[in-house]
TrEMBL record:
<dbReference type="Pfam" id="PF00392">
    <property type="entry name" value="GntR"/>
</dbReference>
<keyword id="KW-0805">Transcription regulation</keyword>
<dbReference type="InterPro" id="IPR000524">
    <property type="entry name" value="Tscrpt_reg_HTH_GntR"/>
</dbReference>
<dbReference type="InterPro" id="IPR036390">
    <property type="entry name" value="WH_DNA-bd_sf"/>
</dbReference>
<dbReference type="InterPro" id="IPR036388">
    <property type="entry name" value="WH-like_DNA-bd_sf"/>
</dbReference>
<keyword id="KW-0238">DNA-binding</keyword>
<dbReference type="GO" id="GO:0003677">
    <property type="term" value="F:DNA binding"/>
</dbReference>
<protein>
    <submittedName>
        <fullName>GntR family transcriptional regulator</fullName>
    </submittedName>
</protein>
<dbReference type="GO" id="GO:0003700">
    <property type="term" value="F:DNA-binding transcription factor activity"/>
</dbReference>
<feature type="domain" description="HTH gntR-type">
    <location>
        <begin position="7"/>
        <end position="75"/>
    </location>
</feature>
<keyword id="KW-0804">Transcription</keyword>
Length: 124
């Protein structure tokens, strides 16, 4: 976590948990850490951990079974939607940055294609 980041800590933790879910580190229906363990892991206040779980429940990313704990959603479509939302956010930031540089659509697409191929060649 970056405590001097402009993004509030609880949002950073939520984003981290979402990444764990879409990358499969936390599987569908898997039990999540207790609020106390979450607070210890991220070095946050237990009240913040509670707020995080309430927010994740409100977004249908997790659910609580009374007396058993908090679990990752079992809805695969919801996880796909989270993945698409995160990808759209990244694309929006990318396009905004390119627009500020005055780079046109055709050049952006060519650069993206080149970088994608370079990335795949390096990482496979």
């Amino acid at each position: 976590m970056e405590f001097d980041n402009n993004i509030p800590i609880y949002i950073q933790v939520i984003q981290d948990i979402e990444k764990d879910i879409i990358t499969g580190k936390l599987g569908l229906g898997e039990k999540m850490p207790s609020g106390r363990d979450l607070a210890l892991k991220y070095k946050i206040n237990p009240n913040t951990a509670s707020r995080i779980y309430k927010e994740l429940e409100a977004q249908a990313i997790c659910f609580t079974k009374r007396g058993l704990g908090t679990f990752v959603t079992e809805d695969g479509a919801r996880v796909d939607q989270i993945r698409k939302d995160m990808a759209n956010d990244l694309l929006e930031q990318f396009i905004s940055g390119m627009d500020k540089l005055g780079i046109q659509k055709a050049e952006i697409l060519a650069m993206l294609e080149e970088k994608y191929l370079e990335f795949k060649e390096t990482n496979n």
